[in-house]
């Protein structure tokens, strides 16, 4: 049911003024125009909003309910107008985000902390989990996802960057154990691999001609956490296959070196995704804009 905002404003003014005549003076309207506006509103709503006597005007139960909601709606409109006048567009309420554990800790959490400082009335709940959450069923506003996305009419996505895996080690380890000049040389070195529930992650590589190779590392040490693998590599223990966004700082500093640079993994996209809704809340729209503007630059840093 749709009601004109001007009519609602007249109704609220009548209630707060205490009479049709006083409301008419405040609104610079005739008493007849105010009375007809309220009559049309009551007809549209199919209820009586006022109890009228020759001397008093009071709200019915339905009128009281409608006034309380109308008053809040008009207050929200005035608040929005004020923010627009001040040039301030801010997010409010609770925003729920899902992200992969390590990526969420390293990139999404700092990004959202800065965003929260810009929007003092916004609460942010960041859930880091490597499973694919159901945004709609579990009530998330948006998610960061790494990898190819399945076709879905329920979700909308924006690409943020690319994810790839690199072979790496420390200069100290290579100085002690010798260089790696070919894929076959990996079998002669100590390798650290990702494993979960007894399943070892194979290294999916491709060369510059995009010919693909599968390497099953002869792992001396297996862990189910990429950060732990990185820490083990940094202790000069061996060679590992790690996400580029996880090690780019160490590569820039020279603490790690890329091995067999002509071999990288297949590239996988990184997206921000959100439910395909007819109405997108302002908090979601502003967050997406912030992520799209900032995260790609961080991934390239």
The gist of it:
This protein has 301 residues and is an alpha+beta fold. The chain is built from ten helices and 15 strands. The chain has three domains: 1-74, Arc Repressor Mutant, subunit A (Orthogonal Bundle), CATH 1.10.10.10; 86-159 and 268-299, D-Maltodextrin-Binding Protein, domain 2; 163-267, D-Maltodextrin-Binding Protein, domain 2 (3-Layer(aba) Sandwich), CATH 3.40.190.
List the helices and strands and how they pair.
Layout: H1 5-17, H2 20-27, H3 31-45, E1 50-52, E2 57-59, H4 61-85, E3 93-99, H5 101-118, E4 122-128, H6 135-138, E5 142-146, E6 155-163, E7 165-169, H7 171-177, E8 191-196, E9 199-200, E10 203-206, E11 212-215, E12 219-223, H8 226-234, E13 240-243, H9 244-253, E14 257-258, E15 268-275, H10 282-300
Parallel strand pairs: 3-4, 3-5, 8-12
Antiparallel strand pairs: 1-2, 5-15, 6-15, 7-13, 7-14, 8-9, 10-11
Helix pairs in contact: 1-2, 1-3, 1-4, 2-3, 5-10
Pfam families: HTH_1 (PF00126), LysR_substrate (PF03466)
Keywords: DNA-binding, Transcription, Transcription regulation
GO molecular function: DNA binding; DNA-binding transcription factor activity
């Amino acid at each position: 049911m749709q009601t004109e905002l001007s009519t609602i404003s007249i109704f609220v003014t009548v209630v707060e003024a205490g009479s049709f005549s006083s409301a008419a003076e405040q609104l610079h309207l005739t008493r007849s125009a105010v009375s007809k506006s309220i009559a049309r509103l009551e007809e549209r709503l199919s209820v009586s909003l006022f109890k009228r006597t020759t001397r008093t005007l009071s709200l019915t139960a339905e009128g009281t309910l409608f006034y309380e909601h109308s008053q809040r709606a008009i207050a929200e409109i005035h608040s929005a107008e004020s923010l627009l006048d001040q040039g301030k567009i801010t997010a409010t309420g609770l925003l729920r985000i899902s992200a992969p554990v390590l990526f969420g800790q390293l990139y999404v959490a700092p990004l959202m902390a800065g965003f929260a400082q810009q929007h003092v009335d916004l609460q942010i709940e960041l859930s880091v989990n490597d499973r694919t959450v159901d945004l709609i069923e579990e009530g998330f506003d948006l998610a960061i996802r790494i990898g190819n996305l399945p076709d879905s009419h329920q979700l909308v996505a924006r690409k943020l960057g690319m994810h790839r895996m690199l072979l790496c080690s420390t200069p100290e380890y290579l100085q002690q154990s010798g260089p790696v000049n070919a894929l076959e040389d990996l079998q002669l070195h100590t390798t650290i691999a990702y494993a979960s529930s007894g399943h070892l992650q194979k290294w999916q590589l491709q060369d510059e001609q995009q010919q693909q190779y599968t390497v099953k590392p002869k792992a001396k040490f297996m862990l189910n956490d990429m950060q732990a693998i990185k820490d083990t590599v940094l202790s000069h223990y061996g060679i590992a296959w790690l996400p580029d966004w996880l090690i780019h700082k160490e590569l820039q500093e020279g603490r790690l070196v890329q091995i067999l640079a002509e071999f990288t993994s297949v590239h996988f996209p990184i997206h921000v995704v959100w439910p395909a809704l007819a109405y997108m809340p302002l908090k979601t729209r502003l967050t997406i804009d912030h992520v799209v503007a900032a995260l790609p630059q961080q991934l390239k840093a």
